[in-house]
Amino acid sequence: MPQKVRIALDAMGGDFGASVVIPGAAISLRRHPDTEFLLFGDRAQIEAQLARYPAMQAASRVVHTDVAVGMHEKPSQALRRGRKTSSMWLAIDAVKKGEAGVAISAGNTGALVAMARFCLRMLPGIDRPALAAIWPTMRGDSVVLDLGATIGGDARHLTALAVMGSAMASVLFGLERPTVGLLNIGVEEMKGHEEIREAAELLRAMNLPQLDYIGFVEGDGIGRGAADVIVTEGFSGNIALKAAEGTARQLAEYLRGAMARTLRSRIGYLFAKKAFQALRDKMDPGKSNGSVLLGLNGIVVKSHGGTDAEGFAYAVDGGYEMVRYDLLTKINQMLNRDGSALASAQTAQEAVS
Amino acid sequence: MPQKVRIALDAMGGDFGASVVIPGAAISLRRHPDTEFLLFGDRAQIEAQLARYPAMQAASRVVHTDVAVGMHEKPSQALRRGRKTSSMWLAIDAVKKGEAGVAISAGNTGALVAMARFCLRMLPGIDRPALAAIWPTMRGDSVVLDLGATIGGDARHLTALAVMGSAMASVLFGLERPTVGLLNIGVEEMKGHEEIREAAELLRAMNLPQLDYIGFVEGDGIGRGAADVIVTEGFSGNIALKAAEGTARQLAEYLRGAMARTLRSRIGYLFAKKAFQALRDKMDPGKSNGSVLLGLNGIVVKSHGGTDAEGFAYAVDGGYEMVRYDLLTKINQMLNRDGSALASAQTAQEAVS
Q1: Could you tell me which of A326, A305, A310 has the C-alpha nearest to residue A105?
Q2: In B, which residues are within 8 Å of A236 by CB distance?
């Protein structure tokens, strides 16, 4: 029998804390009964929730702490106040100590990135962590990063994102040599910020065996599935993700409105109910909830702060799979294949510039 | 009888040139019979199309030129080769000479921005033009800018965008004091690039009578209609717009697929056909085609390069309305209200920094 998957949860994270985290984890547990949970946070609140989910209760161990990171705390403030004591820190620390395979939090992104970086440290050759998510496209799924772990970045940072993203795509989608595109505002060579053009030159010059750099991709290329991996710095990545989510939510709203309007359309709705359900599922940004922090000596998954239990369950599913497929070891192997891809990025950049 | 609206068209612009521009303009002419067209480009190609649309032919005058700007030419190259001779330049120049109220092109954005700037010159106090579009939201329409006229920009540039965008929203939506939000990756004060935080301070400090600055808006706030005007520099604006368009196209595709799948859903589709049509219209990025170049001594409308005749017609409709409602004069009045808003931006910035 394979080992159980152990997941550390920041039970206080997100807009609703334990009242979403526990019911969400309970949903995921039904799908993956071989999960065990470490729950960090206020014991009273956690146990009140656990009482409603006996299977979840049986699979969980609670570690009490009074300290929770606020959703609007500055990262520096959160670190000062919550290092070694907050539910967020303790969940991450459980990964460091090997007590859990992954930490999951719906808390403050900035604080989570800062704590993960501080507690777990970066992988060799990687300067900054990146938030990567699986983006459903017309051609299947793509990995998109950075979705806002940090903002800005030079050509070398973009190259590191390309290497990490393609490692993730290789592992999750079983691809030998994923295609990689750089997000830009045009596909022509002369467009966009200088660092993006430089990164393009670098990726071409390096011609890495583990990824196939295909050029620039515009915003609408993400949904079209123009590349297996879409690389951008965290500001525009976050804007792209949220603009797409907002549009999906807006269209789901239109759909509801259009179907409710007339008797004929209501009858139509009854006939087509299942098809609609499938469509709604595809339109629901919550279904792809959960982005993973790459570049660290350990796996941390970030859930949307405002998600419901259903949405949080998807983030837990994601974390489960990362551990089950041993994502981190495989990413490390990728990063080290053919010596060090990122060390060669350094050399290639010196050659290019 | 009011004066006719005169529109100058770059008949060679876009991926399909005259074969989309003329049929598109003909559709718009049916909706606005008080339009006259000046058509710039290859006479043979233009007249071959006009022969198919007698009403359009009667409302048009053709000005021949051999020179057309290529879709992938660099702006500098386009200017060198096409200044004073290309169909794009001549259409813009017709606005400068007062022969037309607006120039419309589906050509190369970079070249269009460069030529418009060179030919028409900037309004006093404005350094760089901006591409603004009307974005359909859950709460009505919003103005979003800059969608990629230029990239990057300091706090003063963002403030100028806020002033121009709110002038456009006032005129088009009839609002006394439109709400303005700055696009950012979080709503907390400490998030995002420094220039965005600075612009926020500036807008608060200026407390302009013509706009109501409400704070940061995230990517998903655009579709939610969080503000009447959403301000961002051109790189992230372009990424946001295209990510949203890509998502809309993707979901329209899912909808088609979901409805075709089973007999029951096909029957449902027949019953709900009209509701679907309405939904498809809302999902169609082409329906909001046409962004306007703000900040110039004249109106220039940019259509998507890859649009069809239906889409181009929406860009022409947009241009028609800008002239009919005398957008430019009204924007100028807004910019000059209470002395010069932008001169006071300069002063406020010095005070803040």
Answers
A1: A305
A2: 235-236, 239
**C-alpha distances out from residue A242 to A144, A147, A226, B266, B292, Å:** 13, 9, 19, 33, 24
Distance from CA of B15 to the nearest CA of A (A): 15
B223/A262 CB distance under 8 A:
no
Provide the residue count of chain A: 353
Element holding B283 (H helix, E strand)? helix B273-283
Give the pLDDT score at B287.
67
Residue A292 lies in a domain: no
- Please name the residue of chain B whose CA is at the shortest distance from the CA of residue A256: B279
Residues 6 or more apart from B98 whose CB is under 8 A from it? none
Claim to verify: residue B270 and residue B314 sit in the same structural domain = no
Amino acid symbol at B195 = E
B257/B347 same-domain check:
yes
- State whether B135 and B265 are in the same domain: yes
| Residue range A212-233: mean pLDDT, rounded | 96
Q: Rounded to an integer, what distance in angstroms lies between the CA atom of residue A166 and that of residue A176?
A: 10
Residue B148 with chain A: CB contacts under 8 Å: 185
Q: Which residues of B touch A270 (CB under 8 A)?
A: 268
- The predicted-structure confidence for B171-193, as pLDDT tens digits, reads as follows 888 899 999 999 999 766 667 78
pLDDT, tens digit, 9 for 90 and up, residues A309-333: 999 999 999 999 989 988 888 888 8
Instruction: Say if the Cβ atoms of B219 and A243 lie within 8 Å.
Output: yes
The chain-wide mean pLDDT, for chain A, equals 89
Query: Which positions ≥6 away from A199 have C-beta within 8 Å?
Result: A155, A158, A159, A162, A182, A231
Question: Mutating which of B151, B193, B245, B247 best tests the A interface, going by the most A Cβ atoms within 10 A?
Answer: B247
Output the DSSP codes for A207-265: --TT-EEEEEE-HHHHHHT--SEEE--HHHHHHHHHHHHHHHHHHHHHHHHHHHSSHHH
What pLDDT score does A260 carry?
75
In chain B, what residues touch A140 (CB-CB under 8 Å)?
none
Q: Do A251 and B251 touch (CB under 8 A)?
A: yes
Is the pTM higher than 0.95? The answer reads: no
Residue A170 lies in a domain: yes
Domain boundary, last residue among A79, A96, A120: A120
Q: What is the pLDDT of residue B320?
A: 95
Cβ pairs A/B, distance under 8 A? 206
Does residue A95 lie in a domain region? yes
**CATH at residue B36:** 3.40.718.10
Task: Show residues of chain A in contact with B270, CB under 8 Å.
Answer: 268
Q: Are A161 and A295 in contact (CB under 8 A)?
A: no
A189 pLDDT above the threshold of 90: no
**Cβ-defined contact of B272 to A276 (cutoff 8 Å):** no
Q: How far is A6 from chain B (nearest CA, A)?
A: 31
Which domain range does residue B25 map to?
5-127+289-332
Mean pLDDT of the region A45-67? 97
Distance from CA of A298 to the nearest CA of B (A): 25
Interchain pair A244, B243: CB under 8 A: yes
B304 and B224 in a common domain: no
Q: What percent of chain A has pLDDT over 90?
A: 67
Please say which residue of A120, A140, A168 terminates a domain. Answer: A120
Same domain as A173, residue A112: no
Assigned domain for A328 exists: no
What tokens were used for A113? 């990135």
- Give yes or no for residue A190 having a pLDDT over 80: no
Query: Do A155 and A222 belong to one domain?
Result: yes
A46 and A106 fall within a common domain: yes
| pLDDT over 60 at A344, yes or no | no
Q: Cβ–Cβ of B236/A232 closer than 8 Å?
A: no
Nearest neighbour of B264 by CB, restricted to A137, A271, A279: A271
List pLDDT tens digits, range A107-139: 999 999 999 999 999 998 889 999 999 998 989
* Number of domains chain B contains: 2
Query: Which residues of chain B are modeled with pLDDT < 70?
Result: 1-2, 187-190, 275-276, 279-280, 282-288, 337-353
Res A339: pLDDT:
43
* B349 vs A11, more confident: A11
Measured between CA atoms, how close is A9 to chain B, in angstroms? Answer: 24
Kindly state whether residues B216 and B326 are assigned to the same domain: no
| Residue in B151, B242, B251 closest to A218 by CB | B242
- What is d(CA A25, CA A343) in angstroms, rounded to the nearest whole number? 40
